[in-house]
Amino acid sequence: MPARRHPPALPRLPVWCRLVLGCLPLWLAACGNDAAPFYQGYVEGEFVYMAASQAGRLQTLHVARGQQVEAGAPLFALEADPEAEAQREARARLAAAQAQRQDLATGQRPPEVDVVRAQLAQAQAEAGRAAAQLARDRVQFRAGGIARAQLDDSRAQAQSSAARVRELRAQLQVAALPGREEQLRAQDAQVEAARAALAQADWALAQKQVAAARAARVFDTLFRVGEWVPAGSPVVRLLPPGNIKLRFFVPETALGGLRTGQLVQVRCDACGEPIPASISYIATEAEYTPPVIYSRDSRGKLVYMVEAHPAPGDAARLHPGQPVEVTLP
After folding, report:
1. What is the pLDDT of residue 108?
2. Among candidates 272, 278, 269, 264, which has minimal Cα distance to 326?
3. What's the pTM value of the predicted model, to 2 decimals?
């Protein structure tokens, strides 16, 4: 019986070749999985709390939760009856101060000046009569027809009538003059004080109505109509698109490749296409620090918080508290 022939033995491969052949399936599997590494995070909103500086009862609430408002849109109004009364009072005080200032600047009114003129004409007539009587009494006294006492009375009457004429002429000149400089300056100060009081009253009244400073979404309303709102208590909570940011955490090994301004891609459930965002902050301290000295194993437990802001147009697709996945380019 012929002997069975065996196939020739294969030459034995070196050790490094056997290692390469053994790892080849793993490398091929890794090449077939093209999923990029991602980092877990969430969406956070920097809310704007709209409040009034004055206290009052909530009279009108113009917005509702979830509503989109434009810049300048009214949000709410508080009862403002006391502030409106204070404004009217301040406006009346300003008008009175301005009228008094104008009165001081223009002198007396024309009818008052006419009264002084009439009195001056009457005094001039009386002074003329007294002067004529004094002239006659002097002639009579020289002729011996009257006593010296009567002449003295005539002289005194003529002097008194002339003095009255001079007095009324001076009053007529004063009536045409404005107030003294000191009076005008004092009244100017009164006008400025009244104007400042009116401005303060206008400001206090305007504080009872609050409008949106910029376009935003009404995230929540914190009071109902009819409730008392303390001064400074927020009534409406707004979320502008620019105030939506992302927070995600990266390991210590990926920290060195990040910089502010760098773009990342954000994915979330039902968000559709990835959302680009720009890194705005990188934490300088780790979120978790082992209680022992750093080692190669413990460094792997360190994570650092990173913040990124999407474009305002893309921010509407994100909601605070929503989990996201962030991938680096």
Report:
1. 63
2. 264
3. 0.60
